[in-house]
Amino acid sequence: MKKFIIKGPNKAIKGEINISGAKNSCLPLMAASILFKNKVTFKNIPVVKDVLTMKDLLVSLGAKVELSEKKKIMIITNNRQHKLVVPYKLVSTMRAGVLTMGPLLARYPQKKIKVALGGGCALGVRDTNWHLAGFKSLGAYNNLEEGYVNISSKKSLKGGNYKFPKVTVTGTSNIIMASVFIKGEHYIKNISIEPEVIDLINFLNKSGAKIKFIGKRSIKITGVNELINGHHEIIGDRIEAFSYLCVGAITKGKIKTNNINPDHLKSEISVLKKIGYKIETKNNSIQISPGNKLKPTNIKTGPYPNFATDNMPLMLAVLTTITGKSKVEETIFSNRFMAAPELNRLGAKINIKKNIATIIGQKKLYSADCISSDLRTTFSIILGAIAATGISRISRIYHGLRGYYKLEQKLKEIGIKITSKN
Ligand code: EPU
Known about the structure:
This protein is an alpha/beta fold.
């Protein structure tokens, strides 16, 4: 299994990074292709492992998927009836497989759709109960059979009301996709307004769907008869962008990230500024450079527009090197501090109590061998190793390759001393 070897400390790193398309936009958009009778074209595809897994999933359902890595274009053609079984093998390696539930239900409401239940993951319990409750509000019923959820409806799906108990990102995307062809109107409250969900709404509306905001977190969906062809360019990945800005932060360097809308990182940018970094934004780029004196800070994750839980492990790594006491409160997942014990092996001082991490910033970190356990933890450990003195080896980096395109190459290009070995 491939390992990263990083020689540190890497100081005052300077450079520009072209940010790829957002993985968490691309996956629901690919699932949404199921709604279309003919052809969907997506530009700015991040060719990462999860996207390739979703491609395999769509192919196993009967779609034709053409991908050009060079042009970052994917064309999905759906002119055949889909198979209605989403196998465990694909959902267990990538939770976003559950995103096929909504569009399959919308296209084939009276057939039996069988989707493997994802189960937990490294971040903690990850339920789909609110997805299923949302489908129920459209008239669909479900039952569990040998680890698979069977979803179906006796009649066509019809509009009604549903309020999410708490904000869920893929839950929102799933109910939106399920509602596109309903009879009448469906009202959904307390939805996620993450940029990736807005990207999905924009794509669907542009292709003929009728989804309208009637409040900050409330939408009305009016059913339409069909969607035929679609075309969309995926937004830049705000988590990838923040990851590389953190390389600038931890090395006290100057990093510019291109192809990213700064509005998608407003909370994160304000935290970086509060710490003392200098941030310059343009329409489609963000640049970080060191300020005079860096101060510790407190952050709390939350649904967008709050500080993203996916960006928290990256910030955690940066805070381990800022003198003073910082606090990080996680409010989304029950097990999101997996980077902390690894960063502590590098000499960080992070103490976790329930969902709060207290960090005592250190002047220096020291190299160690570390193991990654999930996607964002991989980058968090990379940040620690970049700052640490000596040679660190990071194993199980396949987690990182699920969501970061050309990770090693992009780090090398800005001058990080990184190599890999099997
Ligand atoms: N939840 C339930 N019941 C549900 C749905 C969610 O209890 O039916 C709970 C979850 O267990 C969790 C919380 O609600 O505690 C929020 O989970 P959410 O549903 O919002 O997460 P998700 O949609 O499964 C997406 C991203 C994650 C990101 C989260 C939070 C995709 C494909 N995944 O997951 O991305 O962390 O939203 O923003 O969009 C990543 O890219 O590294 C990643 C994990």
